[in-house]
Amino acid sequence: xxxxxxxxxxxxxxxxxxxxxxxxxxxxxxxxxxxxxxxxxxxxxxxxxxxxxxxxxxxxxxxxxxxxxxxxxxxxxxxxxxxxxxxxxxxxxxxxxxxxxxxxxxxxxxxxxxxxxxxxxxxxxxxxxxxxxxxxxxxxxxxxxxxxxxxxxxxxxxxxxxxxxxxxxxxxxxxxxxxxxxxxxxxxxxxxxxxxxxxxxxxxxxxxxxxxxxxxxxxxxxxxxxxxxxxxxxxxxxxxxxxxxxxxxxxxxxxxxxxxxxxxxxxxxxxxxxxxxxxxxxxxxxxxxxxxxxxxxxxxxxxxxxxxxxxxxxxxxxxxxxxxxxxxxxxxxxxxxxxxxxxxxxxxxxxxxxxxxxxxxxxxxxxxxxxxxxxxxxxxxxxxxxxxxxxxxxxxxxxxxxxxxxxx
Length: 408
Fold this sequence. Notes:
Layout: H1 2-30, E1 35-38, E2 41-55, E3 58-61, E4 68-71, E5 78-79, E6 84-89, H2 92-118, H3 125-145, H4 148-168, H5 175-190, E7 197-200, E8 205-208, H6 228-240, E9 249-252, E10 257-264, E11 276-281, E12 284-295, E13 305-312, E14 324-340, E15 345-347, E16 350-357, E17 360-365, E18 368-371, E19 375-378, E20 393-397
Antiparallel strand pairs: 1-20, 2-10, 2-14, 3-9, 4-6, 5-8, 6-7, 8-9, 10-13, 11-12, 11-14, 12-13, 14-19, 15-16, 16-17, 18-19
């Protein structure tokens, strides 16, 4: 009998839990909390997605077979014919000593420049305070931009201004002693860190310390003649390469370089050879390159796919490392309000969205000008009082929405 009572209690608890779960699900479905999104203008692009191969006029550079080779230029630096690209050291210790020597030289240059700025300087604290404020603002913008080299430069300028202010107000900053000490350090370090030889170039160009071993994958002189089949084969060859860096670096001897890719012919119907388009890198859409279409935008009739050849004369240290890239060819743009497709509704036969205006739900007419898988772009018409307005709080999730309903 006691056992039966325990079984009944267990059954009652199980049934109660089931009903509680059902009630919770029903409540969740019928009581969806409003979620809103502020209406701000966004730009979306009509684009062609493609996998592109980079073709450059580039030549590998090898270091010394023995010892240690260290670059004496930075990525992106221009090198003249016969210029020094790297230094050869007998051992890693010698290379480390030279690195310390270079650091001391940089510090020495910094303080000598600072000393030159302070000679005969008028003691105006307000002026230097304005300079500090401007330098700090530039530094903050650099940090937001994420360019490490620019951040370092802007940080140094802030430090310059602060030191100069210290000197103006009479704080003891003995630049002469600092410079003398640095010169002694430089003399001591250099005596044990001289390079044994230099790596020189036979041609002029832009240096890059990155080499993937694919510099000769495509004949640069024939880049504009590549067909779709050849491009596909070369892209497959990239996948089969281990990208082992067997070279010290490379020299890019022409600013002109190419993106070559294969795209459906129907995608280029609105393009023409010679036209300029913007190319965005998929893994970093902040990097946008304006390129010219060399060929492929005017395919033959009944041609299913085309070899699209794009060229650019812009070269940077980052662009010098690209090889196989997922790109977006931007062929047009539209501006409007970007909202989830689920935010669209139909009321009285009109398409639009609901907006929360001072705790009241209002229906805003909306014209869809662009559609993607999960969002739509709505036209911004400032002259139409019934359409979506800037900074409206568009309802993107809610239940039982209707024009005029008060939400509390």
